[in-house]
């Protein structure tokens, strides 16, 4: 009997989730190869531990300890599943025996002597907090700028807001972050100096605002354009002809329909926001996953730790994939032209 | 298949608003949860010394690290048997006294009776024996340093004997260095030791270490055995110390000038910062003083002595990347642009000497180090015992001599418009090092040498050097004594880093061996001879004895500035004046 997917929203979500499996495996291969393809893995582990004068014999021991002497496909299977398990006779000690990625083990950080999963889970709430704050900020700013620009078309308000939006779309994240620090922290002293480990609201505003800028600018442009389209429709004219107040026309009739493409764009920006946290967390010393990931790459005076990089990339992949899924669902939910089920 | 339609037209934006409200509430709750239990309150901060630096330690286990950043914390939380006074003489710390056996065959340490570890374990001879054996373990970062220790023995509860294979004056010195700190036998066996488990006899306890973020130390109230260089022998006046990590100059300096930080450690001497520090005397004191620290550039000298090539003097095989030369001579050469051939090894020596003559070190000191350090002329710093001032006259700035030597080496007619050699200098992004490279590029251009400055990650540089694929590389060390000669120039150290010159010869090895002599006269003479030998072979370009720049706020009082800098500080007299 031929298997048929359930129809409607649930079938759509199920299909998208199943599609994640091959994506996950493809990415896992790329992520796994980060370590062996970027040089001698044993030497990288040694350097990560600060052992720069390691002898060839010690390197060999380290290679056995971590299983780097095995063929690459065996190493991959072991990284994924935890099997074949370590052979104590070959010097593999318990501290680095992986349970496997499929069982939630992202490996053991050789620079921090802790499981990577626990490091990631510790940093994840910070990244989520930053991302969702930026998400809300971009929504608020984008809508505000877009609506007022549309309502005051070709006025100084429109030119100012859209000029700002173009600037916001064009400006690079990292530069904007540094300028925000220079202006609002160093010169004006309105905000505390970004400090890793400090989580107060005042520490959150600048990185979230910087992260939100690009999305807010895109949303503002989209909102303006969409509002202008809707405001030209017959039913808006009819609403006005019926004598409805302008506020009701705009907010009840126009905005409701103009919001459909805006909402789609809004959720499509979510993966972009997750990606942006990597830069923001570095610039603003925000102790999230992005900062951890970049430190794992050996930046900011930290030692390289490819297990952290592997874990970080995978975590960001999961976040990006689910953000995309959410965007797809919202897009389908909001847009009546999208059908679920066969051919949908 | 069922087909359904959903849309804004049917449901309106109410669900979206609901979602938005839920997200806002979630953020608010998340913010409250994450913010809970933040930093210490104002009162708790009252006597906390807040320091900041750009990089963190890789481990706080003394036997798993050699990093300066780690030693700073270990010096605060652990103690050594001996220590240095302000004139670098040995003085007691955990050992009340010590005796050296005949011909330096052993050292007996008589220990204090009133010391205990922070976990409550007693400090006794067992702890010393445990620490010595741990330092000598194959995995230990100290194993090379303690190679001349045969074993350690408990003579009685408070006397430990260290048996030596042979007298080793640098090992004796090691007992006063932070890297020889005594480890608690109970806590030292914990796999988390140095990561999340900490213990020592020092004046501060490591409360928490968040890697690459912050180290928090609190006062050890039981401490009363501080060394005599401090007026206060313990407990410390400070209630705690925090060491924050911030690699961003922009934010690190702002924290300091705002008063969020009391002390900046090991910062780069940048002009804007120096100006701000010096024009703001009411806010900060700035200590700028020389220490036994060196910035240098190493040449890739890839012909080694026959002993090295045959692996006779070292149990370490020659890495495959090393170009083993059939030439049996003691005149190593510089591998330059693939143009050198082993049958003319002497050309490399001429090139290297030419580059030394073409280097204007006064200008380097000014442009790269803001004139804050002191010109370096040889492999050792002028503060070290055995320093030979005669090396200062060996390579004066002389462009004509440089051109002449290059011509003899087969590179005639070099000028700013006619490059005869192309070299690449590897450097990290540490600002003074990059400036060194840029300055040398301009200086060597005068003799027709085109220098490319390649800024690379530290690990990448190590990998390139390990394969012997470099031309020149920047480096630096901070070390108190002439043990550097063994670490950097003895052929036994050549295959692995940190010998970045791939240089060595049998005679120099013998001279370096003599620097370990029990006789001060023999050792002193050997140290001096060795400096000249190394500079005659020109495998190394000394740049500057690096300054130690440590801006401090005026409300920090009583800090005892030690020539060994922050690697040895106990902060027993330090306090914050509110």
Question: Which structural traits does this protein have?
Answer:
heterodimer, A: about 350 residues, mainly alpha, two-stranded antiparallel sheet, 12 helices, flat, B: about 575 residues, alpha+beta, five-stranded mixed β-sheet, 16 helices, globular
Folded structure, characterized:
The complex is a heterodimer of chains A (344) and B (578). Chain A has helices at residues 8-33, 41-48, 56-66, 72-81, 116-151, 156-170, 173-187, 201-231, 234-241, 246-283, 289-296, 306-334, and strands at residues 108-109, 114-115. The longest helix of chain A has 38 residues, at 246-283. Chain A has a two-stranded antiparallel ribbon. The model of chain A has no long low-confidence stretch (mean pLDDT 83). Chain A is built from twelve helices and two strands, in the order ααααββαααααααα. By secondary structure, chain B is of the alpha+beta class. Helices cover 28% and strands 20% of the residues of chain B. Chain B has a six-stranded mixed beta sheet with strand order 13-17-12-16-14-15, sandwiched between helices. In chain B, a hairpin with a 5-residue loop joins strand 2 and strand 3.
Number of helices of chain B: 16
Taking the alpha carbons of the first and last residues of chain A, their distance comes to 23 Å
How many distinct beta strands of chain A?
A: 2
The biggest sheet of chain B amounts to:
6 strands, mixed
Q: Order of strands across the biggest sheet of chain B?
A: 13-17-12-16-14-15
Could you estimate the helical fraction of the residues of chain B in percent? 25-40%
Chain-averaged pLDDT of chain A: 83
Strand content of chain A: under 5%
**Sheet with most strands: strand arrangement of chain A:** 1-2
Largest sheet of chain A: 2 strands, antiparallel
N- to C-terminal distance of chain B: 77 Å
* Uncertain segments of chain B: 1-12, 36-43, 303-344, 495-499
For the residues shown, what is the average pLDDT of chain B? 81
Q: Write down the overall geometry of chain A.
A: flat
The whole-angstrom Rg of chain B is 27 Å
Q: Structural class, judged by helices and strands of chain B?
A: alpha+beta
- Extract low-pLDDT stretches of chain A: none
Helices and strands of chain A, in N-to-C order? Answer: HHHHEEHHHHHHHH
Largest interface: A-B, 78 and 72 residues
């Amino acid at each position: 009997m031929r298997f048929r997917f359930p129809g409607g929203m649930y079938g759509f979500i199920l299909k998208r989730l199943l599609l994640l499996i091959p994506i996950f495996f493809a990415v896992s291969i790329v992520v796994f190869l980060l370590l062996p393809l970027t040089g001698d893995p044993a030497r990288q582990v040694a350097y990560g531990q600060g052992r720069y004068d390691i002898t060839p014999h010690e390197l060999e021991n380290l290679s056995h300890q971590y299983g780097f002497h095995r063929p690459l496909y065996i190493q991959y299977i072991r990284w994924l599943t935890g099997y074949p398990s370590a052979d104590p006779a070959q010097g593999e000690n318990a501290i680095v025996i992986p349970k496997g990625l499929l069982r939630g083990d992202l490996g053991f950080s050789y620079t921090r002597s802790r499981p990577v999963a626990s490091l990631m889970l510790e940093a994840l709430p910070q990244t989520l907090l930053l991302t969702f704050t930026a998400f809300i900020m971009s929504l608020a700013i984008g809508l505000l700028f877009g609506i007022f620009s549309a309502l005051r078309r070709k006025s100084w308000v429109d030119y100012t807001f859209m000029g700002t939006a173009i600037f916001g779309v064009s400006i690079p994240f990292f530069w904007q972050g540094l300028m925000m620090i220079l202006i609002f922290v160093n010169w004006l002293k309105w905000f505390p100096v970004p400090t890793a480990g400090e989580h107060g609201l005042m520490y959150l505003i600048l990185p979230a605002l910087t992260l939100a800028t690009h999305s807010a600018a895109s949303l503002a442009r989209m909102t303006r354009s969409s509002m202008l389209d809707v405001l030209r429709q017959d039913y808006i004219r009819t609403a006005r002809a019926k004598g409805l107040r302008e506020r009701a026309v705009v907010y009840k009739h126009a905005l409701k329909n103009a919001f459909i493409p805006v909402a789609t764009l809004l959720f499509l920006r979510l993966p972009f926001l997750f990606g942006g946290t990597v830069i923001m967390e570095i610039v603003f010393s925000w102790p999230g996953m992005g900062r951890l990931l970049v430190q794992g790459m050996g930046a900011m005076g930290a030692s390289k730790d490819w297990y952290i990089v592997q874990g970080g990339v995978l975590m960001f992949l999961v976040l990006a994939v689910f953000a995309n899924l959410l965007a797809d669902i919202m897009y389908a939910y909001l847009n009546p032209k999208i059908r679920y089920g066969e051919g949908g | 298949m069922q087909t359904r339609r959903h849309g804004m037209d049917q449901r309106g934006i109410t669900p979206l608003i609901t979602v938005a409200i839920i997200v806002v509430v979630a953020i608010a709750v998340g913010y409250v949860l994450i913010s809970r239990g933040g930093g210490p309150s104002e009162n708790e901060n009252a006597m906390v010394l807040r320091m900041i630096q750009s990089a963190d330690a890789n481990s706080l286990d003394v036997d798993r690290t050699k990093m300066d950043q780690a030693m700073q914390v270990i010096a605060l939380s652990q103690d050594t048997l001996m220590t240095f006074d302000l004139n670098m003489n040995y003085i007691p710390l955990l050992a009340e006294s010590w005796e050296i056996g005949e011909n330096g065959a052993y050292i007996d340490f008589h220990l204090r009776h009133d010391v205990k570890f922070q976990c409550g374990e007693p400090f006794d001879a067992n702890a010393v024996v445990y620490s010595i054996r741990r330092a000598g373990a194959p995995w230990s970062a100290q194993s090379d340093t303690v190679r001349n220790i045969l074993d350690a023995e408990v003579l009685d509860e408070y006397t430990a004997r260290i048996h030596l294979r042979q007298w080793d004056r640098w090992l004796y010195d090691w007992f006063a260095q932070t890297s020889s700190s005594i480890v608690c036998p109970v806590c030292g066996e914990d796999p988390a030791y140095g990561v999340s488990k900490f213990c020592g006899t020092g004046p501060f306890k490591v409360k928490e270490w968040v890697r690459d973020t912050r180290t928090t130390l609190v006062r050890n109230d039981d401490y009363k055995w501080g060394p005599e260089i401090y007026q206060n022998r313990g407990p410390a006046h400070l209630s705690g110390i925090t060491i924050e990590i911030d690699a961003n100059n922009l934010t690190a300096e702002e924290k300091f000038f705002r008063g969020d930080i009391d002390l900046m450690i090991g910062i780069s001497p940048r002009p804007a910062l120096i100006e701000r520090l010096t024009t703001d005397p009411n806010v900060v004191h700035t200590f700028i003083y020389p220490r036994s620290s060196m910035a240098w550039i190493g040449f890739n000298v890839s012909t080694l002595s026959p002993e090295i090539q045959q692996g006779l003097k070292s149990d370490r095989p020659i890495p495959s990347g090393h170009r083993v030369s059939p030439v049996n001579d003691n005149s190593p050469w510089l591998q330059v642009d693939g143009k050198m051939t082993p049958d003319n090894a002497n050309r490399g020596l001429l090139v290297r000497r030419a580059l030394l003559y073409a280097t204007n070190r006064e200008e380097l000191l000014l442009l790269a180090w803001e004139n804050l350090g002191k010109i370096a002329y040889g492999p050792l710093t002028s503060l070290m015992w055995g320093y030979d001032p005669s090396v200062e006259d060996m390579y004066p700035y002389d462009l004509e001599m440089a051109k002449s030597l290059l011509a003899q080496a087969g590179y005639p007619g070099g000028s700013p418009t006619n490059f005869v050699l192309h070299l690449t200098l590897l450097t990290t992004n540490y600002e003074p090092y990059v400036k060194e490279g840029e300055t040398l590029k301009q200086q060597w251009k005068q003799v027709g040498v085109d220098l490319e400055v390649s800024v690379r990650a530290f690990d990448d540089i190590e990998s390139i050097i390990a394969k012997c694929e470099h031309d020149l590389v920047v480096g630096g060390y901070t070390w108190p004594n002439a043990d550097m000669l063994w670490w950097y120039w003895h052929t036994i150290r050549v295959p692995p880093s940190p010998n970045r010159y791939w240089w060595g010869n049998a005679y120099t090895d013998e001279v370096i061996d003599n620097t370990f002599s029990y006789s001060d006269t023999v050792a002193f003479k050997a140290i001096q001879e060795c400096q000249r030998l190394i500079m005659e072979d020109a495998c190394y370009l000394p740049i500057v004895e690096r300054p130690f720049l440590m801006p401090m706020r005026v409300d920090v009082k009583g800090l005892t500035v030690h020539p060994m800098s922050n690697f040895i500080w106990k902060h027993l007299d330090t306090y914050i004046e509110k």
